[in-house]
């Protein structure tokens, strides 16, 4: 589909409340450290009773609310008390002193950081431990599967209470387009692309990543998209790019650190090579929506995926698809471009999930059937026949375009009949294409299906003509005149 253009224009009680997972982990470690120090008792030459009372008071305050003004650490302490992993100091029945805080003996270990259990300090190499790596939260952090399940359950409760889902956002070709400086075309240089990226304009969308020798272009509408989506979703960046690059792009997209905080996942965080997975995202698969321009990296989570139309701004990004937007001095429109379109889709998904699930408990709802049902409404009532679109030695039912049309709600078949509504062809000279013209059926290019898929709405058929159609119509007109 051609792009619409215009002139340049630890414990995890809750991530859904804007809490930084790294801060919460820090609270876990401080909690464990404070209780561990108390459990060891005082060495010879311990402080006076008055000093001990002050220490006890400080310990209680630290356990209850490390970091005044933050509720996260209170929740950390409360959760550990509920689980029996730490107990508050109690009054001694005889001496009136405070008993030492107790730490539950490991194993089982709930997690390791830097190769050491963050509760008991045991070396991970000495343990039979499998778990989920969370390097994007804290370097060297790995949580046990049971701890991850517990934290995910807690996160789901908080998300639902806040009426939020999870939104996973790819970077390249989805939210931005980047190119290396030495790949800038001569035409782009003549148009001053590099100098435009260096201007100190707060509203600019072109940026130079000096340390990486790259240019980055933000997709039109991206800032408004993030602002509105953040009201409905807990958002994560998930890219196959390197961590340093992902962090730099996150700063461009979220300079105030409002949307993503530490929730920036890169290729080094993937648990399976060349694949992205929701196993490193706290929460449930049933609440996650994924925006990505590449389907094959989400093999285990295709039902969560909304496939994005690829954003190609720079010449190096579209060498095989014609002239770039930058060279044409054009861009996607903000009003009805890809991100504005998908924002409307996300709003519908959110509404259906939270407001239209009457009779179903909120905790048992699943966003994936919502996505599937909305997608099937796009081409509902359409019956398609393909004419020489697929290789002759392949089964058409296995082809991407056929499957895409079915996912959009269309019925696909191999032969024409009166119930067929559309014939999809790459040239108007085929037998089925001529049949479509004769019987006044829609004859259109396969790009129509792609456009419907990206736009989540049935697109005007007349915008996707088949090559050779005008010539054929002209010949038919001449034949009709001669016959008369």
From TrEMBL:
The record's subcellular locations are: Nucleus
| Enzyme's top EC category | hydrolase
- Annotated PROSITE patterns: BRCT (PS50172), FCP1 (PS50969)
Q: Where is this region: Disordered?
A: 1-58, 70-94
Q: Which Gene3D superfamilies match?
A: BRCT domain, HAD superfamily/HAD-like
Q: Cross-referenced PANTHER family, in alphabetical order?
A: RNA POLYMERASE II C-TERMINAL DOMAIN PHOSPHATASE-LIKE (PTHR23081:SF35), RNA POLYMERASE II CTD PHOSPHATASE (PTHR23081)
Q: What is this protein called?
A: RNA polymerase II C-terminal domain phosphatase-like
Q: Which species is this record about?
A: Triticum aestivum
